[in-house]
Model the fold of this input.
Amino acid sequence: LGEDQLLAVQAELAGLEAGARELARQAERHQQQAESLQQQRQQLGDRQGELRQQQQTLEASDDAGELAAAEAACRSAEAAVELSRRRLGEVAGRSGSWMEEQQRRSQLRQQLGERISPLEAEREQRQERCRQNDNRWAELDAEQRQESEALGQAQQQLEARERELEQLGQRSSSGQGQVQELAEALALQQRTRSRLEQEQAQLEKEIARLDSRRETLHESRGTGALRVLLEAGLEGIHGPVAQLGEVEERFRLALEVAAGARLAQVVVDDDAIAARAIELLRQRRAGRLTFLPLNKIRGGSGSGGGAALQRGGRAGDGAGMLGRAIDLVRHEPVYGEVFRYVFGDTLVFSDLGSARRELGRCRAVTLDGELLERSGAMTGGSLQQRSGQLSFGSNPEGDEAAPLRRRLLELGESLVACRRREGELVQQLDSLRPELSGQQQRRAALEAECASARRALAPRLQQQEQRQQRLQQLREALTADRQRLQELAAELEPLQRQLLDLQQAEASSQDSGDAARWQGLQHDLETADQALAAARQRHDQLLAARRERTLAAERLRQQGEALSAEEQRLVAAVQALVEERRQWKERQQAELEQRRALEARQSDLQTRFGERRRQRDAAEAAVAAQRQQLQQRQWELQRLGEDLQSLAEQQRSEALRLAQLQRELPDPPPEIPEEVRAAGLEALQAELRSLQARMEALEPVNMLALEELAELEGRLAELEQRLAVLSQEREELLLRIETVATLRQEAFMEAFTAVDGHFRTIFAELSDGEGHLQLENPEAPLEGGLTLVAHPKGKAVRRLNAMSGGEKSLTALSFLFALQRFRPSPFYAFDEVDSFLDGVNVERLAGLIARQAHQAQFMVVSHRRPMIAAATRTIGVTQARGAHTQVVGLPPAA
Done:
């Protein structure tokens, strides 16, 4: 009907709706990402502007002139110092020892200055580098913390998506499990329905066959013609002879053989009714019947039977005579002449030997059904199945198909419940599949989001790792610089103390004229030194400023590179977002077109499905109505038959009662007044009814009738409710029974197929022949038996009783090993199973047992050498003294 296609289209539409919702979420996410990227690009542009401004400031600060002036000042100061030193040298040459002392002190001070100056310069350089590294470390640490917070938020979002993805996976797995269970249950219900429909069709065919057979039997034994008469409403028909008498079970066969075809003859009131019945049968061409009118029928004299009774003595004595046939039938007195006509002087004997003594003198019958005629004719032998023939006490309208009809009704109820359960399962599957499709769509979207987030996090994590490494390097450099500063402080402290002591000693020796002159020169030298130191300091400051600008320029360059990399990342992210947006639009457009196509297809399928469903519903309704009408007609026919039989019985009873009343009437009958006779029977009946109404009016009124009615109505409602519950439970139980029957049949066929395959393989291996298992009733395998079909090599297919002992052993062992291979047992014990086999077959059997030994243990009792040689362990049993046995161990090769 296209229902599966419509369901598939609806499922696809539900999936597309879920995909559309997911696309809407992706569009919202794209918008948020675009806004975030735009904000990041704005911040990046501001930062790049600041860096360019700083670079321009650094480039604008040109100190080349100041540095050249500082270098010239240093050279001038060095020349002044050199001049002062020459003058001091000249004075020192004229001043003798004092000058030597002063010169020594000057040299020492100079040496100390030479040692202190580089250390102080290194300390200043180290301090400047520490300050720069501190600044750089603070900047990187702030960036690291800010990026860590952003990465933490991104990772939290990723973890949330992953948790949602995991939950969706669990729900999807659970949903798939439910769908699988429902699909299996639906398939089982469909298989059960198919099996029930096949059985229903077979039952309908069987019922039709039985009905046809019953009609044929009715025509053959006349019951069809009798039914025509009864349906015509002909009065005065009592029925066939078989229905008018009853016999004991042990006499039934003998009496039915003695009566023969007369059991089917019809008893009527008089010959006029018989004539009307014959005329009616002729008019309707309904066949022929023999009628026995009660007013004319006369039985035999029974003289021959009486003489036999006189000769044989009392009935039931040792002579084997059981009595007259008519005396063994229980019937109404009015039918006495009928049964005397049917049986005549027939005697009943226990056996043929007893009956033969009266052969030719009277008509005799035995309990085994042998019939001996007065003429000397003897009839006997084996009796075929007597089904379909009339029998004493049997109903000719008995329906052999009644059990099949009851089974057909049960099948109808089971099919209704099965179809209803199938519809419920289909509805559950239809409700679960769109939800499962939506979960799968959402899961795919989450997987894409997680993959995109991981790709976006990877470069940021790498940058964070690089910043962490740079921070570690700065931390190590700061630690090394601070340690070196401590070492420099430790080295400078004694040198500065020596320089201070030297200056104090020089101050105490400044009293003489030479000293004054020396002090003047020394003052000039110090002034020159100070000027040189100042010039050098200025020069160093300019160099330090240049180095600072160089480092700042390097930092700006690195920051510019980082910003360029970030800009490239943002550009790549924007391009990826644009590409993803383009793919989203393409996917949205494709899904929109697909949705339009599916909606058009759905509309078409709904239209076609609606028409076909209406046609199917109409056809099913027509079939159900016809089937219900057929069943109703069958029930009505059965009920009418029962009513007809009941009316016939009632008619016979009324006839007997009328005869009895006629016998009870006074003789002569009383005279009826003329006015009563003129009024007629109806007037008497009306007067009788009036008298009965007057009598009922005198009765007391039951005031509790309304309460009893309410109680009965409540009880009726409760019973109806319980009946509805029981009916529903009965339907469920019938459905479960049929479902279990389907599973049982499938399990049996699965085992049969597997065992049959193993049997074919093992039988071919043991006997080089062909063999298989065959079901007696493939349509209903559980109702029939199983046949082993064996075809040894070089021989025709044989029955089991026609096989030799070895062939029987191989066939039985093949079946046993086939069962063992299908469902192995842990242990097997074989007692001389190879006794009927020749040496070659014993070797084959031993090899098969050895190969099967990895699945189970085998203990084999054998006298054959190939079997003993193939055993893993051999235990010998021999007879010792007397009747005792002794167990001895044998080597494996024994």
